[in-house]
Structures are given as structure tokens and as C-alpha cells.
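Need C-alpha cells for this chain, all 294 residues.
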Amino acid sequence: FFLNIDSSYADLHSRYQAIFDQGKELGIYVYCLYTDGDPEKLLPLIEHNPDCAMILLCNSAAVTEDFAKAAESLNNMLIGVAYDDNTDTACLVLRDHRLLYSIYRMYTDTESDEILSGSYARFAEEMHCPFVAVLADPGCSASVRENVYKAVVGARVAQKYRTIPIDLFYDIERIGNIISPPSSIIGFKPDGSIYNIGSDGNPLEHNIFNESLRDILKESFSKKKAVSQKITMIFSGKSCETAFYYSFSILSCVIATTLMQDFIIFTNSFGGIGSFCEIHRPNAQITASQKKFT
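Here are the C-alpha cells for all 294 residues:
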């Protein structure tokens, strides 16, 4: 569930809280929020929903000392910083304030070289990010998306970096299908209109501000999926599920990390035989270990 939030709106609580309430009624407790405006204005929404894990995506220039200070009291949020010329400065601010953060990059057909070569992940290592995320521009070709995802999975399996590469589209669907198949991703624009395309190739005509979330999900996906399916929600941002499954899904890791205030580092790919993790706690030595699943 992807929700793109317009932070300039006067009363964000009255505009968006009802959507969170509807999501929780459907069992959705992890949201990914995005804004190209001031992310500090979204913090009251996040604070008002302490039972939810939030991934807040924002531009690096918006990460200021004031924003970091205001975010210090929130324990249910991971901050995703856009990859650009100011990313290193933003990460330094967040690190100084001991906040949980990672970086993300939207790529096009002509902007995938840094991802494929590994230089993007090596930069994330230098920024001390537990995760390094990629997502394809809507106009990106299927062949480039597939090549990037192969590189992401290959780097995870080989444990090439001191950070975990994730693809925010492919991996979310994969996680969802592991936990409760089949899974779908749904998203909404700042005006509430839906991003998704119908089976006929035309945009779906729904608006989250005019219709209930339950009705939108039923009408958009019930023809090809059971109504009881799990929907991965990306709230102007993004979302995931709170379930911790044997798969040790990366985004579930983010959820557990924010809620438990732990740093969880996965040292293998999703699920399967031999998957294991290490849990690192702030200001303490590693307390847990490695648990293998067969």
C-alpha cells in the first residue's frame, strides 16, 4: 500500500487517520509513508499510531537537525533517505541522533549502472545503513528491473556487503507470497487516486478519500485474488506486515527492528534452509544470535 502524502495539507490527522484506522481493522500494522515535502509534518501521524511500524521515505535535503530532534521520541519508525548529493550529510545527522535509517534509490533504464556495479551498496556501507533499497521508476523496462533484482538477490545470498540490499517492489511481493499468498501492492497519490493499473491496462478509478479501503481492495483485486488475501500497504510510503515468519523477511525485520528498538542484521537471503540472523542492540554487545531454520 503506497500512499504519497502531501505534507502541505493543513490538517494531516483529519485527512489520513481514518485510513490508518481502516487499515488496522484489516490487520495492517506496517506502513511506508512518502513525502516530497516536509517529513517533520508527518511525525504527529506516526506518533498517533504507536501500534504501527512506519517506514518514512523523504528527500535528503529535508533531513535537518530540527527534523532529527523531533523524531528522537518515536520508536516505531525507519527513515528512508533518498540517494542524491546530500545523502551523506543527511545520514550523518540521523546517525548523530541515533535514529534508525537507510537509503533508497529510484532508478531508470539509464541509471542502473551504479546498482549493478555495487558502488551504490558500497556507499550505503559507508553510511552505516542496515539496508540499501532500490525501486524502479514506473517507466523502467522489465528487462532492467529483472537484472537489478537478480543483482540484489545475488548480493544478499553472497553476503557481499555490510548492508542488506532490498528491492522495494519485488521483495515486498515475494515476502507477501511467503507469508500469505497471493500478495498485491497497492498505492495512492497525494490526491487519493490509485496508482494501480487494471488487467485491461487502464488505470483503476478509485480514490481513498472517497471510498473505504475495504471496498477498494475488494473491487480492485477480488476478481483475481481471494478477498482474504494479504495486501502489502505502502503508505505514501509503504508498508509491510508485522508477522515474523520463518522466511525472516527483510521488511518484517524492519518492523521488528523499529518496534523492539533493536538492530537486526540478516546474514542470508529470504527463508530457506540455513537462513539465520544476528540481533544487535544499541549500546550493548550482540545478545542473540544465530538461529538456523530447516
